Amino acid sequence: MAQPANDVADLGLARAGVRRVEWAERAMPALRGVHRRFAADRPLEGWRIAACMHVTAETANLLRALSAGGADIALAASNPMSTQDDTAAALVDAYGVSVYARAGMDPATYERNLVTVLERRPHLLLDDGCDLVNTAHAELPGLLSEVLGGCEQTTTGVIRLRGMSAEGALRIPMIAVNDTATKRMFDNRYGTGQSTIDGILRATNTMLAGRTMVVAGFGFCGRGLAERARGMGARVVVTEVDPVKALDAVMQGYTVLPMERAAAIGDVFVTVTGNRDVVRAEHLAAMKDGAVLANSGHFDVEIDLPALEDLAVEVRREVRPQADEYVLADGRRLVLLAEGRLVNLGAAEGHPAAIMDMSFAVQALTVDYLARNHKDLAPGVHDVPGEIDTEVARLELAALNVDIDAMTPGQEDYLSSWRV
């Protein structure tokens, strides 16, 4: 097999990457089942796919399944800090995927790689944050006539897509993989909750028990993070702009405060909102010495990094791996993790493979659905068909050897009838 075009750090890392990918595969039984089905049926024969995703072992197993189905795939990294160089090498050398990703690449290289994978004239786009779709519309609109649809797997990306759609700017059908029950409940809640704390502990080796963690945002990700932090003994404070979510946090026993009041009492701050400037200059100025700042809400705009730079009189880079210390004029020190990017991927390895198994099984089956039904989908944002979510849940339960009840015909009739 000829080696596909690529720009990776070191193809000599491929053997180590294969071991990493195979280890992750052990915890991904639902996706393995999809892989076997795709290998037998070849539903994606002749389809070109461009992807912008985190280059991790879990992603590699999704791409292996799509390749088994016949797809020709080109992958660009969605975050330079999450790229595993050995996984990138394995995808190229062992699995035949074109990869354009290097750990720590600069923004110019990141943008160039998006254009490179789009210039392969894909039929389908797999996006993580809407950067690939945005680049296609803004820089290469002539290619959109060949793009038949795509998938978006993040909350931030879906928000951006809905904004494009509302303005009539979205020219292709995009399916919101992020919005499925399995994705929100397991990936966002359990995956982000565990992996974010993993990243914080790896970067700081701090004790959470007895400390105050401020969780900015109480969506699915924020709920999962708050649950796990409380389980480790932290006092959890939640900040929110949504009254319903704030009330939910209160009813679950969390302290809810505006950030201007939480700033003075927090030891660890984590943003999980999907919005910008959640932690601003006035908040930074009120924080105690040694406060830790982390983001798990996708883009590096949730913490106002320019304001942090302006407040600092000295910046000590990498006081620990993925931890930069900003010294303020009065001697207080604020510690920023993973440069304000996703701490769970920048300072750790992202979600456990068992979590990504469900998300990526949904994604793979959604790609198959798009290939078969794209002619019936108008430009805009669409939901994943409910039967896909249900099928993945059943696959996962079967892998866990869990049996559930089935309704009797009488029960089905009762629920579907309006008669007494």
Automatic annotation (TrEMBL):
> Which pathway is recorded for this entry?
Amino-acid biosynthesis; L-homocysteine biosynthesis; L-homocysteine from S-adenosyl-L-homocysteine: step 1/1
A GO biological-process term: one-carbon metabolic process
InterPro entries hit by this protein:
Adenosylhomocyst_ase-like_sf, Adenosylhomocysteinase-like, Ado_hCys_hydrolase_NAD-bd, NAD(P)-bd_dom_sf, S-Ado-L-homoCys_hydrolase_CS
Q: What class of enzyme is it?
A: hydrolase
How is the co-factor bound, per the entry? Binds 1 NAD(+) per subunit.
User: Organism's domain of life?
Assistant: Bacteria
**E.C. numbers:** 3.13.2.1
**PROSITE patterns membership:** ADOHCYASE_2 (PS00739)
Compartments (UniProt record): Cytoplasm
List required co-factors.
NAD(+)
Is-annotated flag, keyword Glycoprotein?
A: no
Binding residues annotated for NAD(+), in chain numbering: 154-156, 188, 217-224, 240, 275, 296-298, 344, 351
Q: Which residues bind substrate?
A: T56, D128, K183, D187
All copies of domain S-adenosyl-L-homocysteine hydrolase NAD binding, residue ranges? 188-350
As one GO molecular function, the record gives: adenosylhomocysteinase activity
The UniProt entry, under SUPFAM superfamilies, shows:
Formate/glycerate dehydrogenase catalytic domain-like, NAD(P)-binding Rossmann-fold domains
Alphabetically ordered keywords of this record: Cytoplasm, Hydrolase, NAD, One-carbon metabolism
Please indicate if the UniProt record lists Cytoplasm as a keyword: yes
Catalytic reactions of this protein: S-adenosyl-L-homocysteine + H2O = L-homocysteine + adenosine
Q: Name one GO cellular component term.
A: cytosol
Main location as per UniProt: cytoplasm
For this chain, the family text in UniProt reads: Belongs to the adenosylhomocysteinase family.
The task this protein performs is described as: May play a key role in the regulation of the intracellular concentration of adenosylhomocysteine.
From the Swiss-Prot or TrEMBL record, give the protein name: Adenosylhomocysteinase
Q: Which gene encodes it?
A: ahcY
